[in-house]
Amino acid sequence: MCGLAGFVGSGDEDILRSMTAALAHRGPDEEGYYRDHHAPVFLGHHRLIVLDPSGGGQPMWDSEGTVAVVFNGLIYNHRALRSELEALGHRFTSNHADTEVLVHGWKEWGCGLFIRIDGMFALAIYDRNKNTITLARDRFGEKPLYYAGLSNTFVFGSELTALLKHPALEHVSVSKIALQKFFSHGFFPAPHTPYEGVSKLLPGQYLTVDTKTLSTKSHAYWRFSLDGQATPPGTPDDWAAELEGVLSDAVTSRLDSDVPLGLFLSGGIDSSAILSCAADVRPPSTLDTFSIGFRETSFDESPWAEEMALRVGSTHHVEICDLDAAQGNLPSLLSKLDEPQGDPSILPTYLLCAFARKHVTVALSGDGGDELFAGYDPFRILNRAALYDKAVPKPVHDAIKQVAGWLPRSDANMSFDFVLNRGLRGLKHPESQWNPRWLGALSPEDIGDLFREPVAAESLYSEAIAAWESCPSSHIVDKTLDFYTRYYLPDGILAKTDRASMAVGLEVRSPFLANGVAELAQRLPWQAKLNGRTTKWVLKRALKGRLPGDILNRKKKGFGIPLSRWLRSMDPPDTSIPHADASWLKSRWADHRSGNRDDRSALWCWMALSHGLKASV
Fold first, then answer.
1. Would residue 2 show up in a list of annotated catalytic residues for this protein?
2. Quick one: average pLDDT of 508-515?
3. Potential cystine with 511: which of 250, 271, 478, 591 (Cβ 3.0-4.6 Å)?
């Protein structure tokens, strides 16, 4: 895992080194720089050594000195691509560096390279003959990539912090619409970032920059899509068998490492499935598994993880944390996340990554299973919600919502009152807005009050609405799967995992996001994922012989913290948010502390922004 930075246009090598130094935590093992003395092109890289320690330094060039690559991620099918390229006449100099596959792959296939890759990546390819730099990001956006096109400079990098080191962005301003979207989603939906003129490259997209004119062209080389029409051949048992096969292949390819490797283990279906598949190809006792537990029962999953580790025979490591003691880590953690994260589970995710990093450099994660196979609780209620929406008149709905607001507050993880009030928030509005309204910290009406101006829901949820309307399938489950996979997964879940792991120099790999698994998920009908009220139906069918029934059938817990209780004992941030009404937020905090309302999500977003927005802008 690594960090990359660079620019085309005004600047010098000192600026490049400053930008690259901001990414040292992403790649603490090596650094590399390049300045082209014939064109205003600058490339920087920090490397976390995972494959081919002696042969993977970057920027990496071809033998003619015409193509250079800086790259963050890992290409899991690099050995197969290398063999294909060698058969076409390419000669490799490294032993098994996956980066070199990108160099030769670009020369052979150009932008056609990206669709061939099974991996996680954010990269920049400098082609001196074509006078271009091409940025590209993996299919699901596992690795971040930001850019800013200015009048005489194009700047790019793995993190916003690196971009802001360039003088061209010295006076960048905070984007009002991006902040409003942050409160309405809990994350910044791509291409939005907190700063005006700075964008996130979308997953599955590449962007080409002309190094002479700085003009840009973007193109989507892949997009997750559910058509809801064709049903794959065979029976559900055939689908389950195929899913088990492609998941096993994905796990095997993601065990490739020259440094110590382990697995996250929560005791849930996804991480347990990955451990089971890994035990097929490696002696179980050589597999290190990691989990963290909490003294607070409603937040603790460690007994389930220990049960699965014992069943498989892995070498299990567990750390029991005192969440109240961990509360002291919040200011430091929130200040190092680069892009503010609206998901409070960033804290336990960070604690898990820090614990695992004491033993290994690489860890496998279950990210992606819930999004691809309908694992979240909202999927269970979609059909009922549609009936409710049609049957309950607006005045009655408002009355039910008011009664729900009178329920006693609970600090438990995913408590009934919290889930019910969130669910009622989305109903009575268009279906295309249900998912972001359920996930978001504040309603459009509240956001209008916070920013002292009317805010249209269509503007706040424009990306979600566009995804809903562009989904080829007309079914509500497919459309919801599309939303979770195209927006919540990359900008919420994967961004959280990337920041938590990279803060401690840990590489995290997600087998569920392998090409084979994702492409099968696209072909399967929604009934194979949500069967009645059974979520992940085909995945559970595929794992029936691998996992015990209590693991397969246990209720999803999630990775939470007692945030509601913490906030009642904490003082509000002493910094305001640009464009926002600080008095409105302080009033909400006071209401939360008194127990009159539960505003944990909105107040967390305030904290994240207060610590995460750069003071210099």
1. yes
2. 98
3. 250
